Amino acid sequence: MKEDSPKMKAGLEIHQQLNTHKLFCNCPSEIIDDKEKPDLIIRRELRTQSGETGETDEAAKFEVSKKKVYEYRFYNKSCCLVELDEEPPHEINKEALKITLQFAKLVNARINSIVEVMRKTVVDGSNTSGFQRTALIAINGKLKLKNKEVSIPTICLEEDAAKIVKKEDNKTIYNLSRLGIPLIEVATGPDLSSPEEVRECAERIGLLLRSLKVKRGLGTIRQDVNVSIEGGARVEIKGAQDLKALKEIVKIEVQRQKKLLEIRDELKKRNFKEVNPKVRDVTNILRNTESKIIQNSLKRGGVILGLKVEKFAGLLGTEIMPNKRVGTELAQHAKLFGLKGILHSDELPNYGITKDETETLREELKCGDEDGFIIITGEKAKVETAIRDIIRRINQFGRGVPKEVRKCERDNTTSYLRPMPGAARMYPETDIPLIRPDKNIEKPETIFEKENRYIKEGVNKELAHIIALSEKRELFEELKRNNKNVKAKTIAKIMFLTMKDLKTRLKLNTEKISEDTLKKVIKALNDRKITEDGAEKVLEEVAKGKNINEAIENNKTLSLQELEEEIEKILNKNKNVENPKALIGIVMRELRGKAEGKKIVEIVMRKAHRK
After folding, report:
1. In this structure, are residues 375 and 305 in contact, taking their beta carbons and an 8 Å threshold?
2. What pLDDT does residue 3 have?
3. Per-residue DSSP letters for 480-507?
4. Is-contact 173 164, C-beta < 8 A?
5. CA angle 539, 541, 544 (to 5 degrees)
6. Nearest-angstrom CA–CA distance, 262 and 397
7. What DSSP designation does 351 have?
8. Residue from 91, 98, 45, 42 nearest 68 by CA
9. What is d(CA 506, CA 498) in angstroms, rounded to the nearest whole number?
10. What is the pTM (predicted TM-score) of this model?
11. Which residues of the chain have pLDDT under 50?
12. CA-closest candidate to residue 214, choices 474, 511, 478
């Protein structure tokens, strides 16, 4: 960060899908393609539930105020009645619990003696039940970075939410196949003081998680980052999937909060007082406007409401993030209620609204020179609900940075999602008995330890690093374990270098080479049926479409007698070639893979010399 950047602190919440069946049923953790036709469609509305404190969570109340309908797509092959909330949850997934305990060991966290599954109120439609099941497994862990130690206050095991397919005006459609996939949630303390540290910490946690049985690929790990600056407030940014973008996301949030504090200070100078919620119906003023936005709304029976925003002249158009202004922020709130957005005085006349219409609006709303205004159009009930939330947000500008949850966008900026949730959303899950985890579970081997072990086994450093991070690491371990006559470096070379060469240099379809094929090739190598060169030829032939058993037979190792005979035949065909090296090249081309190279050289040299 630059020297003039404000001091910041940040913490991370890493959510990693585990590679097991679902957390509270036996359905596979397979996410079905959104294009696939569902076996069942269910529609629901969700309501709030008071938490253990007896209070209703603010974030939950906000979601319910949107009055949305949720549609769920159900697939028989990856869902059951548990996902529909029509059957109680089953016993917690023991394998997922074991993986979470293993991670706790890696960061020296204290495992709880008794674990109680809780319900966390979530009424944005992503859970059919209106809550997410989560369990606090361990606390007070530590993670070492290059220059500091970071605290890990909590490690939880929870169920993933349903996947959004698309959003419509008052309806959100979800794919239920993701709901219930086990997630480990790792939360750090607010110990990170730069965007670079945030990225380093996320990468370190990610590598530790990849030491365990976790899912791989886009969407299987998500980073939420909490950021605050001096004088600001904690803001949670959800859904950062790209590790490389984390630094930029944090930088933009720091500058956003800095800008909000500058706006607060300017409003203080202007003697800003909270907006009086006196909203005026200005439909008649703009009934004959040429604005397409307004006319399209009126044709659908919409109304237009206007609101005077005192002391905000020139501030509504102030940029607070790249290409996003104060007015953009208010428009995001309107969009959460199914509206297109807002228009404000700093951008008018524009969008078909004339200078005269703008002046008439200012007069109707009794705006002075220092005042701004906004107008919002749409269905009356939606507009009235949205404008109440917009007034709340305008007043927050006078106080600085609000605590809230924001969503990460593709350009690394953020948009408002909901108020910051609190303890009121938690209450016990009564359908699942208390859990007594095994505190004596063995500490697993980390990726870094695996890499060092592979090097000791003869694999070069670069390849050892690739294997340690690879999804095929478990297959590599299995092949080593079951084929003691084959060196680790040979298995590594075949799995990671030969396969790459077939794809990139020879342009072959390596997808035809299954795990079972690799197992058969290494087993044939272990049993001395083929040589290392032969293994490469077998894989090449399989990639070209040949049957694995036939390919192994074609490239089986020749006995010493057979080798002598084959070499004799080749030499007889090439009697005019006198150069021994040239003869070796000819024989190698014909017998490649069917015998060890040094044995071929030895026989050719002996026969050529005799000749």
Report:
1. yes
2. 46
3. HHH-TTS-HHHHHIIIIIIHHHHHHTS-
4. yes
5. 110
6. 10
7. T
8. 45
9. 11
10. 0.84
11. 1, 3
12. 474
Q: What is the spatial distance between Cα 40 and Cα 75, in angstroms, rounded to a whole number?
A: 7
Report the run of H or E that residue 150 belongs to, with start and end. Answer: strand 149-159
Handedness of CA 215, 219, 224, 225 (dihedral sign): positive
**Domain spans in the chain, listed from the N-terminal domain onward:** 8-268, 273-397, 447-554, 560-610
- CB under 8 Å to 445, separation ≥6 — which residues? 211, 453
Task: Give 206's DSSP letter.
Answer: H
Closest-CA residue to 288 (of 202, 213, 357, 197): 357
The candidate with the shortest Cα–Cα distance to 136, out of 155, 152, 114, is 155
Residue 151 has φ and ψ, to the nearest 5°, of -80, 150
Structural tokens at position 494? 């075949």
Q: Residue 56 has what pLDDT? A: 67
Write the CATH number of the domain with boundaries 273-397.
Answer: 3.30.1360.30
Dihedral angle of Cα 376, 380, 382, 388, to the nearest 10 degrees: 60
Beta bridge partner(s), residue 149:
144
What is residue 154's three-state secondary structure?
A: strand
Instruction: Count how many Cα atoms sit within 13 Å of the Cα of residue 555 in the half-sphere of its side chain.
Output: 25
Q: Phi and psi for 466 in degrees, rounded to 5?
A: -60, -45
What is d(CA 149, CA 255) in angstroms, rounded to the nearest whole number? 26
Alpha helices in 311-375 (DSSP H): 326-335, 355-364
User: Which of 465, 462, 472 minimizes the C-alpha distance to 451?
Assistant: 465
Q: What are phi and psi of 357, to 5 degrees?
A: -65, -35
Q: What is the pLDDT of residues 42-58, one digit of tens each?
A: 998 877 666 666 666 66
What digits encode the pLDDT tens for the residues 202-252?
999 999 999 999 999 888 999 999 999 999 999 999 988 788 899 999 999
